[in-house]
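[recover] target loaded
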């Protein structure tokens, strides 16, 4: 069983930055794939970024070059640094983990956090 708690969301102006954190429980967290997803009102939850083994990362085209995912296994925490934020980045951001997948589909992740709201004003 893995429990996840996201934090770091808030209100920011377009062009600004935020860093989200995802704190996890679980003894084997370091081997899990951790993904960030987001869901805007009226839209489906979509993939943002994922990291596996600390160095294998993958990003959605919409955030590539602006967002950076990283992890600190000693702290059992994964971060999402978000720069050059745009109003279209407004959403609830979720982290999720999977023991095995390299995938980006929501159905491939087994444990989810409660989400943190990110609002980008124009």
């Amino acid at each position: 069983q893995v429990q996840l708690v996201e934090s770091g969301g808030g209100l920011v102006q377009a062009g600004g930055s935020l860093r989200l954190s995802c704190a996890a429980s679980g003894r084997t967290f370091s081997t899990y794939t951790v993904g960030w997803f987001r869901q805007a009102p009226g839209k489906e939850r979509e993939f943002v970024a994922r990291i596996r083994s600390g160095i294998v990362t993958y990003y959605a085209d919409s955030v590539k070059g602006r967002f950076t995912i990283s992890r600190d296994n000693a702290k059992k925490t994964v971060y999402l640094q978000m720069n050059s934020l745009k109003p279209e980045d407004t959403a609830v951001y979720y982290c999720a983990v999977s023991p095995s997948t390299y995938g980006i589909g929501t159905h491939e992740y087994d444990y989810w956090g409660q989400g943190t709201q990110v609002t980008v004003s124009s």
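[recover] notes: The longest strand covers residues 91-98.
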